[in-house]
Design a protein that fits this description.
The chain contains 13 helices and five strands. With 341 residues, it is of the alpha/beta class. The protein has a five-stranded mixed sheet with strand order 2-1-3-4-5, sandwiched between helices. The two termini are 43 Å apart. Keywords: Membrane, Transmembrane, Transmembrane helix. It comes from Kribbella sancticallisti. This is ABC transporter permease.
């Protein structure tokens, strides 16, 4: 390379100050995305059932509002049995049974360990100084993982699995149809592997193994196919945009480490509309609650899966159109060129 070419190449490179500024911005965004939801985690309209006389229910509601303004959304139920059903159906995260003789707080650590911990800590002041309520975990986490650490830590690999699948397939596989087949195949094999680790090794999941693996496969397939379609249509920019959305929005706001209602207002709802949040809720429902409350997350995952397939289909049609235009241009040049004998 000549001195002049080296000088031109050097001028094309961005100044060091620009690179440092960009890296600082990226680092700041990463910190905000992952630390902000955790630092601002607290109950926000958290569904909670209260069983007891109307006057007592109103008194407890007032006490909770005073202790945590806007923290709980109270639903009055008839008795303890109704409260248990509401917890098991995932209509509420817990319940307070206002029995003068045996006050009780019902939790469901499988539905959200952080919420169960909050209710347990608040139990001492819910029934007054003369009656210490009993705390009952209606739907507990597995004994091998009583804190739910395995499922919470599994949020990142679930997202990375879909992103890595799309990134590697675009680099290593040329044909678009084979990329789609590869993404679907990886979603199945990857889900079987992750579900096996979480259920049989770590003991973080319960229920039917294949049902749990099916939920994970939906998530990996939805993410990888969506990113493949974006890359097909928009190139590397589309892949980067999709990956950033899943990593910086989907993962921190999935609610897997706490609950969607404990995230900053509005962000928990957004997280449930993205595959990482939907798979977390669906996996808890299928593994611990016999599928209760899984309808909406399954719908979200199905929509993302359909979106990914649609984007891939549009990418294939666009590719065919471009190949057809290229072939017509070649034929036109061949017809226009003089024929020599």
């Amino acid at each position: 390379m000549s001195t002049e070419q080296a000088t031109v190449e050097e001028r094309r490179r961005p100044p060091v100050v620009v690179v440092v500024t960009l890296l600082t911005a990226v680092l700041t965004v990463l910190l905000i995305a992952f630390a902000w939801p955790a630092a601002r985690s607290e109950p926000r309209d958290l569904p909670l059932a209260v069983a007891g006389p109307p006057q007592a229910v109103a008194q407890v509601q007032g006490s909770l509002e005073q202790a945590m303004p806007g923290g709980f959304e109270i639903t009055a139920v008839a008795d303890r049995a109704a409260a248990v059903r509401a917890v098991e159906d995932r209509e509420v995260y817990g319940a307070i049974v206002l029995d003068p003789q045996a006050p009780e707080v019902l939790t469901a650590s499988a539905g959200g360990p952080a919420v169960a911990q909050i209710l347990t800590q608040m139990s001492s002041r819910l029934a007054g100084p003369d009656a210490q309520p009993k705390v009952t975990d209606v739907v507990p986490l597995p004994t091998d993982d009583p804190r739910g650490a395995g499922l919470a830590a599994g949020a990142l690999p679930l997202v990375l699995g879909g992103i890595l699948a799309a990134a590697l397939l675009t680099q290593l596989v040329k044909a678009g149809s084979r990329r789609v087949v590869g993404a679907v195949s990886f979603a199945i094999t990857g889900a079987l592997a992750l579900a096996a680790v979480l259920q049989f090794w770590l003991g973080s999941l319960e229920g039917n193994y294949f049902a749990n693996a099916g939920v994970i496969a939906l998530s990996i397939g939805a993410i990888s196919l969506t990113l493949l379609g974006l890359e097909w249509l928009l190139g590397a920019a589309g892949l980067g945009l999709g990956a950033a959305t899943m990593m910086l929005l989907g993962n921190p706001f999935s609610g897997l480490t706490s609950a969607p209602e404990m995230l900053p207002s509005g962000w928990g709802d957004l997280g449930q509309l993205l595959p990482p949040g939907a798979v977390g809720t669906a996996l808890r429902s299928v593994s611990f609650f016999d599928g209760a409350g899984a309808g909406r997350p399954f719908l979200v995952l199905g929509i993302w899966l359909a979106l990914g397939l649609t984007l891939c289909a549009f990418g294939a049609l666009r590719g065919r159109g471009q190949r057809g235009s290229g072939q017509r241009a070649i034929h036109a040049r061949q017809e226009a060129s003089p024929v020599t004998v």
